[in-house]
Design goal:
This protein is mainly α and 169 residues long. It is built from five helices and no strands. The protein has helices spanning 23-52, 58-85, 94-98, 113-140, 144-168. Helix 2 runs antiparallel to helix 5 (144-168) and helix 4 runs antiparallel to helix 5. It binds fe (ii) ion. The site of fe (ii) ion (FE2) has 2 residues, from loops. Residues 50, 66 line the site of fe (ii) ion.
Length: 169
């Protein structure tokens, strides 16, 4: 007679906690967490432009920024869920998330539409570079799923940068 099937409940967040730590997954999850934080930061910065931009370019910039923050907000969820799939905690780095963001008040001089566009452009370029680096790191780590996700995000930021660059020209 076969031995009865027994299930052993393990303490800890995951049964897999018993496995040795996968150092590659730790590094990739940390890089994803940086990318998640920077993505949220750019959502906030893009939203501020959406609300406060003024001048003849108001409407096209108001529309473009809405497209961009909508995409990035959805992407942040996908990035966070990939971190969870790698069995790491999904969290943002709060200090870094607001670092350098304009917290302006009514007494501050408003940035011009052109300054806002150039500010967003350089952030999209930087984020794109971060995702290119993540593609490389993920490929080296044998993690094609993260590499695919990072490729998709780099493509988005390259396209957003092109649109902003064309607007600023
Ligand atoms: Fe809006």
């Amino acid at each position: 007679m076969e031995a009865p099937l027994t299930i052993t409940l393990k303490h800890g967040r995951y049964a897999e906690d018993a496995k040795p730590v996968d150092r590659n997954a730790v590094a990739i999850a940390d890089a994803l967490s940086d990318a998640l934080t920077d993505t949220y930061r750019l959502v906030l910065k893009t939203h501020a432009c959406h609300w406060n931009v003024a001048g003849p370019m108001f409407y096209p910039l108001h529309q473009m920024t809405e497209e961009h923050y909508t995409d990035m907000f959805a992407a942040a969820d996908v990035l966070a869920e990939r971190i969870r799939a790698l069995r790491k905690r999904a969290s943002v780095k709060p200090a870094r998330m607001i670092d350098g963001l304009d917290t302006g008040s009514d007494t501050d001089a408003d940035p011009t539409a052109d300054e806002m566009v150039r500010g967003l452009l350089s952030d999209h370029e930087a984020l794109s570079q971060r995702f290119y680096a993540l593609v490389e790191a993920a490929e080296i780590s044998g993690d094609p799923v993260t590499a695919d996700l990072a490729t998709e995000r780099a493509a988005f930021h390259d396209k957003a940068a092109w649109m902003l660059r064309a607007t600023a020209a």
